[in-house]
Write a structure and sequence with these properties.
Blueprint: E1 8-13, H1 14-26, E2 34-37, E3 42-47, E4 61-64, E5 82-84, H2 97-114, H3 120-126
Antiparallel strand pairs: 1-3, 1-4, 2-3, 2-5
Length: 127
């Protein structure tokens, strides 16, 4: 999949990212392509380039897409993710950063409420 290099990418764990993307799709929000890294259990979501300078979320990070379309997990394995997109999605389409941030925050709050307060072990999965 080819995306413009002037975008940014939000990276988030699957435990939080998957229900967030599901909520956005369910609400009828615009959702651009998403990269799933099943090895490292992370999602990479392309967003507007200016998002890098204003993204302040404890549950995820945002980097210039030119740096990487891969997840940030280190180790001996490279990122072997796969791109998922809706049929007929415009290649310039991205998930709006504001909607993604709000949905991530709401989903994180729901996950924390559903499991009580997250223990330190669960925090890694909730964050």
């Amino acid at each position: 999949m080819e995306l413009p290099s002037d975008l940014a990418s939000v990276r988030v764990g699957l435990a939080l990212g998957l229900p967030t993307i599901d909520a956005l799709v369910g609400d009828g929000s615009d959702v651009g392509p998403v990269r799933y890294c099943l090895d490292h259990r992370q999602l990479v979501v392309p967003v507007e380039a200016e998002t890098v300078h204003r993204w302040r979320a404890p549950h995820s990070d945002c980097v210039p897409a030119a740096l990487t379309w891969n997840c940030d997990a280190g180790g001996y394995r490279g990122c072997t993710g796969l791109w998922v997109t809706r049929p007929n999605t415009n290649r310039n389409a991205v998930t709006p950063a504001g909607a993604l941030h709000d949905a991530l925050s709401l989903t994180r709050a729901r996950l924390r409420t559903a499991s009580g307060s997250c223990s330190s072990h669960q925090e890694a999965r909730c964050a």
